[in-house]
Each structure stands twice: as structure tokens, then as C-alpha cells.
Design brief:
Residues 310-331 are annotated as: Disordered. By secondary structure, the chain is α/β, with parallel strands linked by helices. It is 39% helix and 21% strand. The protein folds into 3 domains: 11-86, Arc Repressor Mutant, subunit A, CATH 1.10.10; 94-171 and 277-316, 3-Layer(aba) Sandwich (D-Maltodextrin-Binding Protein, domain 2); 173-269, D-Maltodextrin-Binding Protein, domain 2 (3-Layer(aba) Sandwich).
Length: 331
Amino acid sequence: MAPLKKNVDLNLLVCLDALLTEGSVTRAADRLDMSQPGMSHALSRLRALTGDALFVRSGNEFIPTERARALAGKVRIGLAALEEIFSSEGPFDPAATAGKLTVAAVDSVGVLLIPLLAEALAREAPMISLQVRLPDPEKLREWLTEGECDIALGFYIDAHSELHCSDLFGQELALISGPSHPLHGKPMNLEQYVESTHVVFGSPFSSTSPMEEIIDQALKARNLERTQSVQVSSMLLMPYVVAASPHVAALPAWLARQYALSLPLQVRPMPLNVQPIIIRMLWHDRTHRTGMHRWVRQLVRKLTEEMAQSGSTITVSRRTDGDPLSGAAQI
């Protein structure tokens, strides 16, 4: 490995990360409690070291160059490594830790876990801010690697070999129908289920979700096929469509029962043998050993265990940091 250049100041990495995050010299300076001239000087030094403008103006915008975008992930990984090298060996103190946590969570898992996580952070780690976004399965590995998100929560059939994977809990599926369905209020067998019209969930980033694919595969094994009449990009929209139409839909059982408290829905067991949906937590080696992220992952597991003990319909998985798999997909 080539020796580090003598004129490289590692603090410049912090400045570059702030510039990439904020997209403004002024906001980056405020973020690091620096003067604006000081941040401008740091940018000049970064330009000299990299041989690239790094940021260019377009109207009122401060746009990173291709070189800056390419460096973004490496900078975040480098800063995480430096944090690990120079961090205290003492016990982690969440109450005294400031930071930002970005979680990519699918809708159904977000509704279940994010309110609990937000409350726990506010109580135990008030200086850690929480940002939540929907995951894109095509970009998830990149997001976790480069620091666009720190944790992903969802139904991941496979996880890329670079990622750590922990099973959290299983969700049984249930069938919902509304007053317009011919069999509303009555039992429904498999034949009647197949003859019904269906609302299905395709994620915001793909036309079908693994949850729906599992149902279709179970039907195909019996030489059956359902009619998909409505497709929505949010699972949380499905109960409203079903309540106002003659269609049926499959949902995690706990979510179906929750919506049935406020909508005219009938909740039935699935008339088809479908395995429980296993919700997993994914993260990259970038955050595997850092104190804040380890504490947050333990907190997420604790919250799922408390939900199961409180009588929730979820089933906690005992698999924690198992072997990574390959690929990436989510409901």
C-alpha cells in the first residue's frame, strides 16, 4: 500500500462528507460549527488533492461532480473506520451520543416498528435523529455500503453476500374482503378464493413483490391462478381498496386485524398453505462494529421481542447474525 501523502489532512474527509450531505458550503460549515471561509478553504484543498472541482454551480444549486459522487461511499466508509479506530473502549452511552440513523423500511414493517423505535430513541438516545425511507431492492446494497441508509427492515428473500442479515420475526398472512364481496361474512374455500378478483402489492420500485410471488407460486403448485384486478404500490392502501370494492387481498394478519378495527373488513385465514413471511434486518460491515449501530440493532431486536410478549401476532425468530445470502428483494 502506498504511504499517505504528507499534506493530507484527515479532517478534510469530514468536510467533504458534510459538503456531500448538505450540498452547500454554508450549511456544511454550520453542520461542523466552522466559519464559511474555513469551509471554502477546505474545499479548495480538497480540489487540489483530488484534481477535480468536486462541486459546480448550476443556477442556485451546488452540484457534486461525477468524481465527488464516486468518492461519497468511500468517504463514509473511511469515516466509519476512523470512528472505530479512535473510539473509546468504554461502554457505549446512548444518552450521550449524537448522530443520525437512517432506516430503510417497507410500509408494513414501518407501521409496526418505527413508532416504537422513535419513542425508544427519544427516551434513551435523544441526540440520535431518525430518518426513514422506503427501500429500493435494486439499490439497497449500494445504499447500505455507501451510507445512504444504515439498516434495512423488510421481507428480504435473499441478502447480498456483503451484507449481514438477522431474522427478526415471522408474520402469518390473512385474507381480507369488504361488504361488496359476494361471500362477505361467510367462509371462503380455495376455489372461491381463486375465483375472486384480487388487489395485489407491487413495491414502489417493482411490479410485483416477493409476498405476492409466494402466493402465486403456492397457487401454481396446484395448477391454479388468480385474477389480479388492482395493483398498488403501498401495502397500506390495500385495505381501503378492498373495503370499497368486491376484491380480496392478502395482508400480514396483525395488519389486517388493525385495519378491521376502522374499516368494514372481514379477516379470514388464508385458504391456501403459505409459509409465514420472515422479516429481516440487513446492514453492512461498515456499521457492524460501531457502538451506536450495534446498540440500535440490539434495540430493534428488543422491541420485536417485547411485541411478541405483549400478545402480538408476530413470531420472533431466534436467528441473529446468520450467514449472508445472495441477491436482494423485499415486500
